[in-house]
Amino acid sequence: MKVAVLGGGAFGTALAVSLAANGPVTLWARNAGAWRDRTCPKLEGVTLPGRVTLTGDVAEALTADTLLFALPMQSLAGLLDGLPEGLEGKALVACCKGIDLTRLTGPAAILAERAPAAMPAILTGPSFAADIARGLPTALTLACADEAMGKALQQALSTPALRLYRSRDVIGAELGGALKNVVAIACGACIGAGLGDSARAALMTRGFAEMTRLAVHLGAEPETLAGLSGLGDLTLTCTSDLSRNYRFGLALGRGEAFDAGTTVEGAATAQAAEALGRRDGIPLPICGTVSRLTEGTLTVPEAMDQLLARPLKEE
Ligand SMILES: NC(=O)C1=CN([C@@H]2O[C@H](COP(=O)(O)OP(=O)(O)OC[C@H]3O[C@@H](n4cnc5c(N)ncnc54)[C@H](O)[C@@H]3O)[C@@H](O)[C@H]2O)C=CC1
Ligand SMILES: O=C(CO)COP(=O)(O)O
């Protein structure tokens, strides 16, 4: 397989560095001209190995037969719209974590909309770009509805340090990765506001229940949510300062400003999840709370009061 990564931010760069262990990789960055010394501005301290060809010309990347899309969720549809014909015969792998605000779908449906004959796959799970780029051990989920395609991608994209588990549950894998970011913002806000580790554990657990409720309603297998793409990534993102979603929540909880140029997927995902819950009558109190927190119509103390004042329920 000839592999290209589209999206030259932290994650696309880390994937290209990692996959170079298997052979040549092309990395397309729209801002390739702004790179200095083959170092991504979003992933300092990591230099591209010789096997990675960095290009600002998307046509060069499109000569590959396997394309990994590693850019923010809300940019995916626009990027695809601007690409020439010819995606149909390729393996298309989405690496973004989120729900498109306009369509209220994950990345696989957007890839399928653009290339109906292609079989989209999802690469997701607990992994910080900095860890992957340093070659630290990482396990991720590769989800593809077509088993043969899933097996081929699992082989091609696993490396000695990056171990891929296979799944056919595309919806479950992408929703786990999207929704954990919303819970991570809630957990960051909780810790930032000094509400304690017990409250965080409650938010993680009830957040996981909410993730599973929505994902199963939309067709996911509950077991997928309990795997790397759901519980695994939830655990990492809700407990580590390396997570941008968690740090954004910390800033909210402390009443501090946060750099608007940092990618925080959970804010738009909270809005999209809330819209899905409203549309389909699925209660999602934590997503709704995070949606209002991030748009600035609710404070952290008000948010906790509202969550605690909900009617008592069976677990
Ligand atoms: N950074 C991480 O540790 C991980 C990130 N991800 C996911 O990967 C996705 C991308 O995140 P990062 O690379 O970390 O973000 P980033 O902020 O480091 O980089 C985003 C990149 O996308 C590019 N981009 C944005 N819109 C574009 C467009 N329309 N066309 C072309 N390029 C465009 C930007 O120029 C930038 O280079 C997100 O969905 C994130 O959740 C997944 C796992 C780990
Ligand atoms: O998805 C990630 C870890 O699996 C990265 O998390 P952040 O986007 O919050 O940094």
UniProtKB/TrEMBL annotation:
Cited Pfam families: NAD_Gly3P_dh_C, NAD_Gly3P_dh_N
Q: What range(s) does the Glycerol-3-phosphate dehydrogenase NAD-dependent C-terminal domain occupy? A: 169-304
**Enzyme class of the recorded protein, top EC level:** oxidoreductase
Say which domain of life the source belongs to.
Bacteria
Cell cycle in keyword set: no
Using the UniProt record, give the first listed, main subcellular location.
cytoplasm
Q: Name one GO molecular function term.
A: glycerol-3-phosphate dehydrogenase [NAD(P)+] activity
Sorted alphabetically, which keywords does the UniProt record give?
A: Cytoplasm, Lipid biosynthesis, Lipid metabolism, NAD, NADP, Nucleotide-binding, Oxidoreductase, Phospholipid biosynthesis, Phospholipid metabolism
Q: Which residues bind sn-glycerol 3-phosphate?
A: 97, 125, 127, 180, 233, 243-245
- Name its cellular compartments: Cytoplasm
The record places domain Glycerol-3-phosphate dehydrogenase NAD-dependent N-terminal at 2-148
| Binding-site residues for NADPH, renumbered to this chain | 11, 30, 97, 129, 244, 265
Question: What does the record give as its pathway?
Answer: Membrane lipid metabolism; glycerophospholipid metabolism
Q: Locate the active site.
A: 180 (proton acceptor)
This entry's Enzyme Commission designation comes to 1.1.1.94
Q: Which PROSITE patterns match?
A: NAD_G3PDH
Q: What does this protein do?
A: Catalyzes the reduction of the glycolytic intermediate dihydroxyacetone phosphate (DHAP) to sn-glycerol 3-phosphate (G3P), the key precursor for phospholipid synthesis.
Protein known as: Glycerol-3-phosphate dehydrogenase [NAD(P)+]
**Source species:** Ponticoccus alexandrii
Gene designation:
gpsA
